């Protein structure tokens, strides 16, 4: 019937939204609010846990028409798919650093920033084409996933040597294309891998989990981890550099230099992370089946 709304599942939807909002709030603002020393963080944690517990109890007590069918967690590829989404989002933080660097160290205006986004679209198209070609050739999923991460790793290696006080906008085009091409490949393959051999009645639940992890859980974890790391490394370099700069004007310059060096530091860690995960994916003993 057209226009039908599943009113019985509205409570499930609201509980899910409350849990995800509380989860993201705690992770993103935890460092700013001094974590559990803040009543707001404690309240957010309590609200999130209550909403998540109520959602699980409701889903476990209803046999049909559930918003989150718990049977989906009996499939190993679902767990692996969610983990790979998390890993991919964490590995892609270099694109956020690149945008921050362009604004801080180059003369690029909003028009140049929009133009760079067009190059990112080109990267996604190239990544999608390469993924389709590898799938048509029946190449196992793990090689497609590892290839995407290696492209992200190469992009971050290039950026590592480009981070300097005077940035050049044109030098950001190649890593943008490479990074987004590499990013698109794991996303495409994990979507397909997660629903591999999954019954059709569980596909809506997998789609919900995929969107929730990709667009809420993983970005919040990535922002929390790298945001705290970036702040810690920048403060470390400010303390290290400011000892040689007694004047206030020089101290302002030091803050900018410390931010760029911190970006280089964090980018180096992303290179190691993506490289290690790519090697582990290649060393995974099982062949990620292409059948569905």
Would you write up a description of this structure?
It contains nine helices and no strands. The protein has 292 residues and is mostly helical. It folds into two domains: 61 residues; 162 residues, MFS general substrate transporter like domains (Growth Hormone, Chain: A, Up-down Bundle). Helix 1 runs antiparallel to helix 2 and helix 6 runs antiparallel to helix 7.
Question: Secondary-structure map with pairings?
Answer:
Blueprint: H1 10-29, H2 39-61, H3 76-91, H4 93-105, H5 110-136, H6 141-162, H7 173-194, H8 203-241, H9 248-283
Helix pairs in contact: 1-2, 1-8, 3-7, 3-8, 4-9, 5-7, 6-7, 6-9, 8-9
What is the CATH topology assignment of the largest domain?
Growth Hormone, Chain: A
User: Into how many domains do the coordinates divide?
Assistant: 2
Number of strands: 0
> Residue ranges: pLDDT <50 for 5 or more in a row?
none
Alpha carbon gyration radius:
22 Å
Hey, roughly how much beta strand do the residues contain? under 5%
Largest sheet: number of strands, sense, barrel closure: none
Question: How would you classify the quaternary structure?
Answer: single chain
The helix count comes to 9
Order of helices and strands: HHHHHHHHH
CATH architecture of the largest domain: Up-down Bundle
What class, by secondary structure content?
A: mainly alpha
State the share of residues found in helices, binned by percent.
Answer: over 70%
Amino- and carboxy-terminal Cα gap: 30 Å
Could you give me the name of the CATH homologous superfamily of the largest domain? MFS general substrate transporter like domains
Mean pLDDT over the residues: 80
């Amino acid at each position: 019937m057209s226009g039908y709304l599943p009113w019985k599942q509205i409570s499930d939807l609201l509980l899910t939204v409350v849990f995800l909002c509380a989860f993201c709030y705690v992770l993103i603002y935890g460092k700013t609010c001094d974590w559990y020393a803040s009543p707001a963080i404690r309240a957010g944690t309590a609200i999130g846990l209550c909403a998540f517990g109520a959602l699980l109890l409701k889903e476990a007590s209803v046999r049909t028409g559930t918003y989150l069918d718990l049977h989906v967690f009996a499939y190993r590829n679902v767990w692996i798919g969610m983990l790979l989404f998390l890993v991919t989002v964490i590995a892609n933080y270099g694109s956020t650093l690149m945008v921050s660097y362009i604004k801080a160290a180059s003369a690029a205006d909003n028009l140049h920033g929009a133009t760079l986004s067009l190059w990112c679209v080109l990267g996604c198209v190239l990544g999608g084409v390469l993924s389709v070609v590898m799938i048509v050739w029946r190449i196992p999923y793990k090689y497609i996933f590892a290839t995407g991460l290696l492209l992200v790793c190469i992009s971050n290696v290039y950026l590592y040597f480009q981070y300097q006080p005077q940035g050049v906008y044109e030098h950001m085009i190649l890593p943008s294309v490479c990074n987004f091409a590499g990013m698109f490949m794991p996303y495409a393959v994990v979507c397909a891998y997660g629903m591999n051999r999954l019954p059709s009645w569980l596909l809506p639940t997998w789609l919900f989990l995929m969107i929730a992890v990709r667009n809420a859980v993983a970005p919040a974890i990535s922002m929390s981890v790298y945001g705290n790391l970036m702040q810690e490394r920048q403060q470390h370099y400010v303390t290290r550099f400011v000892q040689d700069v007694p004047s206030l004007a020089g101290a302002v310059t030091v803050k900018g230099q410390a931010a760029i060096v911190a970006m280089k530091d964090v980018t180096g860690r992303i290179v190691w992370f993506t490289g290690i995960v790519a090697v582990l994916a290649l060393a995974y003993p099982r062949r990620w089946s292409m059948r569905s």
